[in-house]
Please model this.
Amino acid sequence: MTPEERPLIAHVIHRLDVGGMENGLVNLINRMPADRYRHAIVSLTDSTEFAKRISRDDVAVVTLDKKPGHDMGLHLRLFRTFRRLRPAIVHTRNLAAVEAVASAAAAMVPYRVHGEHGRDVQDPDGRRRRYRWLRRSLSPLVHRFVALSRELEEYLVESVGVPSSKVVRIVNGVDLEKFRPAAPAREPLPGGAPFDSTGRVVIGSVTRMQEVKDPLTLARAFVRLVQRGFATRVCLVLVGDGPLLGEVRRVLSEADAFRHAWLMGSREEVPSLLRSFDVFALSSRVEGISNTILEAMASGLPVVATRVGGNDELVEEGLTGALVPSRNPEALAEVLARYVEDERLRREQGQAGRERAEREFGLEAMVARYLGVYDGLLAGKPADLRGKQLRCAE
Model:
């Protein structure tokens, strides 16, 4: 088969930028055998420097410059893009891209796949009838739905009404070589920290500073730790950018806790930063399957996260970390205090998390599951995957 004869998969997303879903897509494309499929990424809006993370030189990135709100011309641009690219499969991801399924069908793309990676910022609880109706109305045009968590799978089947035979669950994978434990001891934080972390427990998080990720709850929990007398024993490092960054800074400053925290903004060196943490914390209000939790586990860190979405599929309570209610700074502070005081607990649960990542969440297994979906459709055997729940451990 010549390179031109390889089937093309067109991956449709809202924007090619830093994010868990986008990182998973790039990992999939980079790891998929180059002699099996060609790939194109169709970004409904634009593309950023994040595109440079694609290591293959045969991946086209198409931007459609979607206007804010309802862009009436977008579907025509999608239709023309699909007719030009002639993909064998169009794979849309999340609510923001699901309507591209209709354009793909109109352009006579043979197979359509839609992935649900997490809740939409406009519908964090999945309760909006309008969005359930949209997914339900497009369901006949989709050959396979991919849900990244059990909770999202149940939502598609029970709330949206997608036939269970169309839904498969594929949990994200993590690069176990790139994300690895620090050895023999925690790596130092890079220069620029406003505090000396020597002798302190570093509580770290990598997240977007927006409402669904709720960094304010983590900031308020840290304030409670400082107020309880942990100021000289603990520090907080937040990696990520977004509209709530200023509010997080205000919460910490008003409580005189800002001098014990470092708001780093968006950073590229996430693997090494994770190796400089002692505990990983995530205070999201909603989640699918969190890439950052997987990366923290692979890095040998105990994880304290909110009990939302697919977090309980990753964090084993009392074994690899702890789960707390969302929007509850007091509960989060109480659990974090236990990890600050117990080095053995941090070490044992961090090791258990790494072992589970190695056992269940390798990238190779994730890629194999997606290949199974794509190969099954092109072979005309979509029934091969009916009723199966695909996890990277299987």
In short: The domain at 201-360 is CATH 3.40.50.2000 (Rossmann fold). The chain has a mean pLDDT of 92. The chain has two domains: 3-173+362-385, 201-360. Residues 173 and 366 are 5 Å apart (CA to CA).
